[in-house]
């Protein structure tokens, strides 16, 4: 009887946790998001796709809502050149971004690391042995926890970096997906799905 009650309690507990996470992409259109730049953002087969456009410049897709402390989970699959990223506590003017990027990039290019654009550059990169968690050409699960001064990232359930930074702690902003600039013949294409956020209070 005790075992049955324990299992039941765990089931309700898991359900409550799952209900705390809310989808921020509806799988149908870009409602709740804003495009910055000329690069392509569209929905295909229930997935969000970013792809190099005519200018092959940087592009961003930002949430209309801003977030301070949260946990974000999402799946991504890199096609062609998969150089992209997820910005936290960010803002965009034109195609210039302020904020911090959790890198999504080809093998050996520090996926899960944290980079400050137009600022200090790399703040923390994963250890070389941890970068092996990236599955080339397959779906990968990225998890980002942002609370106060601390940012922790996981790739396929492996911790990539754990960073504490006062400047990040002072900021509030959008969640943003990035598409990197490209050259002809080396265009960027990345697919995203299952984007969910849990706000920490």
UniProtKB/TrEMBL annotation:
<keyword id="KW-0732">Signal</keyword>
<dbReference type="InterPro" id="IPR010496">
    <property type="entry name" value="AL/BT2_dom"/>
</dbReference>
<protein>
    <submittedName>
        <fullName>DUF1080 domain-containing protein</fullName>
    </submittedName>
</protein>
<feature type="domain" description="3-keto-alpha-glucoside-1,2-lyase/3-keto-2-hydroxy-glucal hydratase">
    <location>
        <begin position="20"/>
        <end position="198"/>
    </location>
</feature>
<feature type="signal peptide">
    <location>
        <begin position="1"/>
        <end position="18"/>
    </location>
</feature>
<dbReference type="Pfam" id="PF06439">
    <property type="entry name" value="3keto-disac_hyd"/>
</dbReference>
């Amino acid at each position: 009887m005790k075992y049955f009650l324990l299992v039941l309690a765990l089931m309700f507990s898991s359900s409550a946790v799952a209900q705390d996470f809310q989808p921020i992409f509806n799988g149908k259109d870009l409602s709740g998001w804003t495009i910055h730049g000329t690069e392509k953002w569209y929905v295909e087969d229930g997935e969000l796709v970013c792809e190099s456009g005519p200018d092959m410049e940087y592009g961003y897709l930002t949430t209309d809502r801003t977030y301070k402390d949260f946990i974000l989970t999402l799946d991504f699959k890199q096609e062609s050149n998969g150089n992209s990223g997820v910005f936290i506590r960010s803002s965009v003017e034109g195609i210039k971004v302020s904020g911090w990027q959790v890198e999504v990039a080809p093998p050996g290019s520090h996926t899960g690391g944290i980079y400050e654009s137009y600022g200090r550059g790399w703040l923390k990169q994963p250890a070389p042995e941890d970068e092996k968690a990236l599955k080339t050409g397959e779906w990968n699960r990225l998890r980002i926890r942002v609370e106060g001064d601390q940012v922790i990232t996981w790739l396929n359930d492996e911790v990539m970096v754990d960073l504490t930074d006062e400047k990040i702690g002072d900021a509030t902003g959008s969640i943003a997906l990035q598409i990197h600039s490209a050259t002809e013949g080396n265009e960027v294409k990345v697919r995203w799905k299952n984007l969910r956020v849990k706000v920490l209070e």
